[in-house]
Write a structure and sequence with these properties.
This is Thioredoxin peroxidase. InterPro entries: AhpC/TSA (IPR000866), Peroxiredoxin (IPR050217), Peroxiredoxin_AhpC-typ (IPR024706), Peroxiredoxin_C (IPR019479), Thioredoxin-like_sf (IPR036249), Thioredoxin_domain (IPR013766). The protein is α+β, with helices and mostly antiparallel strands. The protein folds into two domains: about 15-160, 3-Layer(aba) Sandwich (Glutaredoxin), CATH 3.40.30; about 165-208, no CATH class. The protein is built from five helices and eleven strands. The protein has helices at about 50-60, 60-65, 80-85, 110-115, 165-180, and strands at about 15-20, 20-25, 35-40, 70-75, 100-105, 120-125, 130, 140-145, 150-155, 195-200, 200-205. The strands form three sheets. The chain has a seven-stranded mixed β-sheet. Strands 6-7 form a two-stranded antiparallel sheet. The chain has a two-stranded antiparallel sheet with strand order 10-11. The radius of gyration is 19 Å and the shape is globular. It starts with 13 loop residues before the first strand and ends with a strand.
């Protein structure tokens, strides 16, 4: 598994769906210099755990917007699958109320570049290409700053849903550090004391 933290987020241009609109040339580059990005992968449309995550991102979309964060989802499904799922009501298993973009990574290149692709191509004993595993994405999440640098990543196995609260907490910690130059200890929450680092180490807790 690659660690992308501290590196430029892999760039891509792909089809995406937002509401009832299919976007032909979607890229995270549009947010450079303007917004932070939470870019998350999920395994499949029309499944069970995935809609719980997509709906939770939507339910907290105002919190992300307050923090100047764009939320973007991605799976290896096609734009047509995304579109159909977005038109289906929530009470029938759909994600009709989701307003943020969903990227279609049908060629698996984006998931591969972010190193969250579960399957891979290998050669069998006859030299033929075969697939090991399933060619879908793990539950990867990447926090990208306004300069396009990955500042946080987490990757869950497919049965394990993520935490929106932890995602927002890490965003708050990053933005606190950027604004105040103070580092945030374990389990730090917005509004709590932070710490200042010196060449001799951490000098201690500061006043709020």
């Amino acid at each position: 598994m690659s660690v992308l933290v501290g590196k430029s987020a892999p760039s891509f241009t792909a089809k995406a769906v937002q509401g009832a609109q299919i976007i032909e040339d979607f890229s995270l580059d549009q947010y450079l210099g303007e917004k932070y990005v939470v870019f998350f992968f999920y395994p499949k449309d029309f499944t069970f755990v995935c809609p719980t995550e997509l709906h939770r991102f939507q339910e907290e979309i105002a919190e992300f917007e307050k923090r100047n964060v764009a939320v973007v989802g991605c799976s290896t499904d096609s734009e047509f699958s995304h579109f159909a799922w977005l038109q289906q009501p929530r009470n029938k298993g759909g994600i009709q109320d989701v307003s943020y973009p969903l990227v279609a990574d049908i060629n698996k290149t984006i998931a591969n570049d972010y190193d969250v692709l579960a399957g891979e191509y290998v050669e069998d004993e006859y030299g033929d290409l075969v697939v090991e595993g399933e060619m879908v994405a793990y539950r990867g999440l990447f926090l990208i700053d306004k300069d396009g640098i990955v500042r946080h990543q987490v990757v869950n196995d497919m049965p394990l849903g993520r935490s929106i609260n932890e995602c927002l907490r890490v965003i708050d910690a990053l933005q606190h550090f950027e604004e105040h130059g103070e580092v945030c200890p374990m389990d730090w929450q917005k509004g709590e004391d932070a710490m200042t680092a010196t060449h001799e180490g951490v000098s201690g807790y500061l006043a709020k």
